[in-house]
Specification:
Strand content: 5-15%
CATH class: Alpha Beta
Order of helices and strands: HEHEHEHEEHEEHEHEHEHHHHHH
Structural class: alpha/beta
Bound molecules: alpha-D-allopyranose, manganese (II) ion
CATH topology: TIM Barrel
Shape: globular
Number of helices: 14
Radius of gyration: 22 Å
Number of domains: 1
Largest sheet: 5 strands, parallel
Distance between the termini: 61 Å
């Protein structure tokens, strides 16, 4: 029986407990780069309070974790965050101790240096492929030193014009490079291969879709999985179907969450298509219910806002992810499985719609209260005075950047 419009849908006590159990086990990783000034290729709107050092990034990430309670790790971008490579590991460990946020995934940077103009592992110049692989080796060493499990690999490689590159040769070079990187990892590490259909390459991207990433991961070795960045799909692509396939193949390594209207827009998760976020989480939680296991997935955010305040945008994305994960936890899996079997279309869909329509915020507030967390993380952050303090402390330095940038 579908609840329909007869009554507002809030959680009953059993559902409130389900949400508490779900959130107790839920963590989402913050991106260090999300606290620093970034922009688009048309320019940056620099923010006086933006982080400009790894210490400030840890401090800001610690604010998000303090008020939400679900962000104990921060993804690091090598070169931006560890300019001296593994020599910076001690500083990272010290910052983690001070701020109570641990280093998470390690993101090599093989897209910014001038040598990568025609690619990294896919570059026709063997010396440049070697340089990229050495940087990935250094990142693996950093991961070992920091006890970080995931090496998160994204490649900007591709080409801008038809006929300018041999796509098959590049595929082979990637396969060789990823296999060599996989062999260098310790048994405790994982490699997450991320795909993206376009940008910055405009004609072809070497690892452009989930199928290519899957084959690359399977070719690299048993500790390689696929990373699904929700902003990296063509319009109308069914992302939850990709998630279901990768789950079933044991090849879903993790996510980079953001939202997008047109491309890789780095918008707040759930700001454009909240129902899609819910459907992605539903596929995962239904899989876990059906198999009686917990999927080993790295939930990570990948966004860096050009206009919204960095920390507020991160808190907004985290609370949106929590809300949709909690909604997905309310799907009646047993009932849904029966309705799918009998092809009872209206009521099967109703299982998802009822859960998605449930206002889970009271239950999340109850969970937060029980954990000693603020019921409203955004308000708690705003009341804390932290933003005023860092704005006063950082404006001079950032405004100098702004004036030099202007
Ligand atoms: C950009 C890329 C990709 C990568 C991220 C961090 O599109 O998503 O994961 O930067 O390097 O968003
Ligand atoms: Mn990403
Ligand atoms: Mn991206």
């Amino acid at each position: 029986m579908i609840v329909g419009w007869r009554q507002p849908i809030v959680t009953n006590s059993k559902q409130t407990d389900i949400i508490a159990e779900t959130l107790d086990k839920f963590h989402v990783e913050l991106p260090s780069w999300g606290f620093a000034n970034t922009g688009t290729r048309f320019g940056k709107f620099l923010q006086p309070a933006a982080a400009t050092s790894i210490e400030e990034k840890f401090s800001d990430a610690a604010q998000v974790h303090r008020w939400t309670g679900v962000c104990p790790t921060i993804a690091l971008h090598v070169l931006w965050d560890l300019p001296h490579g593994v020599k910076d590991a001690d500083e990272i460990r010290t910052l983690a101790d001070i701020h109570g946020v641990r280093p998470g995934s390690i993101n090599p940077n093989v897209f910014q240096d001038q040598i990568y103009k025609y690619g990294s592992l896919g570059n026709p110049d063997a010396e440049i492929r070697r340089a990229a692989l050495d940087h990935i080796f250094d990142s693996i060493e950093i991961g070992m030193a920091l006890g970080s499990r995931d090496l998160s690999l994204w490649f900007a490689d591709g080409s801008n014009y038809p006929g300018t590159q041999n796509i098959r040769h590049r595929r082979k070079w990637f396969e060789d490079g990823l296999r060599a990187a996989h062999a260098r990892m310790s048994k405790d590490q994982r490699m997450l291969v991320e795909y993206k259909p376009f940008e910055p390459a405009f004609y072809h991207t070497d690892i452009a879709d989930w199928g290519m990433a899957l084959l690359m991961a399977q070719g690299a070795g048993p500790s390689a999985k696929v990373l699904v960045d929700t902003g990296h799909h063509y319009q109308a692509q069914n992302i939850e179907q990709i998630v279901a396939w990768l789950l079933d193949l044991g090849m879903l390594g993790g996510f980079h969450f953001n939202d997008r209207r047109y491309a890789d827009d780095d918008l707040t998760t759930g700001s454009i298509d909240p129902y899609q976020v819910f459907r992605i989480f539903h596929e995962i939680l239904h899989f876990e219910w059906e198999k009686g296991i917990r999927a080993d997935i790295a939930y990570m955010i990948d966004q860096s806002h050009n206009l919204k305040g960095k920390i507020e945008a991160m808190i907004q994305t985290v609370t949106s992810i929590m809300e949709h994960f909690a909604k997905a936890a309310l799907v009646d899996h047993r009932k849904l499985a029966k309705l799918q079997e009998s092809c009872d279309l209206v009521d099967a869909e109703g299982c998802l719609k009822d859960a998605f329509s449930t206002d889970v915020r009271p239950a999340i507030r109850e969970w937060a209260r029980a954990k000693g967390l603020p019921e409203d993380p955004m308000d708690a952050f705003r009341q804390s005075g932290y933003l005023e303090r860092i704005t006063a402390a950082r404006t001079r330095k950032n405004m100098a950047a702004i004036s030099s940038y202007a």
